[in-house]
Design a protein that fits this description.
By secondary structure, this protein is an alpha/beta fold. The protein has a single domain, classed as Alpha-Beta Barrel (TIM Barrel). It has 8 helices and 7 strands; from the N terminus they run αββαβααβαβαβαβα. Helix 7 packs across helix 8. The longest helix is centred in the C-terminal third of the chain and has 17 residues. It is globular and about 45 Å long.
Amino acid sequence: MQAAGADPKLLSLVDQPQNLVSTAFGTPRPLSNPTRIQVFNSYARIAQVIADHGIAANTKAVLYDNEWFTHTPANELADPVRYCKMTARLLHKNGLKYIASPGFDLSGHRPANHEWFQQFVRAGLMKCGADADYLDIQDQLQQGTAAYAHDAREAATLLRQINPRAKLLMGLSTSPSGRLDPPDRLWQAYQDTKDIADGYWLNVPRNVSGHSRPTVALHFLQNVVTH
C-alpha cells in the first residue's frame, strides 16, 4: 500500500487487528497488525492443507469461498450448507475462525430482475452462516444501489435469527464481474450500509482486460479516512 501511494492516516486505519487481510501461505504479511487469513475454494482443500500443516502459524481465520465461479468441487456445490457446517467444525476444532463466503451462483444463474440475493435466501443459503464467525454477502454487483442497502438490512435480520454471534460482512469490489466501478460507487454502498454491516470484504480482482484496480480501492479507503 505504501508503494501505491497510501498516506499515513490510511495506513493507520488499515493496520489494525480487527481488519482481515488475505495472505497466502509462505507470503509475508503486507502490514504487521491486521489479522491474517487464508482463502480456499474447497472444504477438501482446507482439510488437506490442515493435515499437511500448510496453514501459516499466524493465521487466525480461513475463508471458504464456495461457488461455481471459483470451481468448488461438484460434490460440495451439490450440498453447500452441509459443507459449510463441516468447514465450521473443522476450523473451530483447529482453533481457527470461519469466514463463510457462499457465492450467489450456488442458487442458480442471476435472475432477470437482478434480485440475486433474494434467490440466494429462498434457496436456504443464509444457513451457511449458522456456524460461522463471519458471513460475507457477495452482493457487490448491487453496490451503490438502493437494492444493496435493502439486501444488507435483510441479511442482518436473517443472520441475527440464524446466528446472532456472527458478524456480517458486505462484499465490495473494484471490478464486480469485470464491471469498472468508480470509487464513488463503493463509497455510496458504504454510506448506505455502514450502520448495518459489521464490516466489508473489499476485493480487488482482475477486470475484463486482465488488470486489477488498486487505486480505486485506495481512493475509496481514503474517503473512509477523511469523512
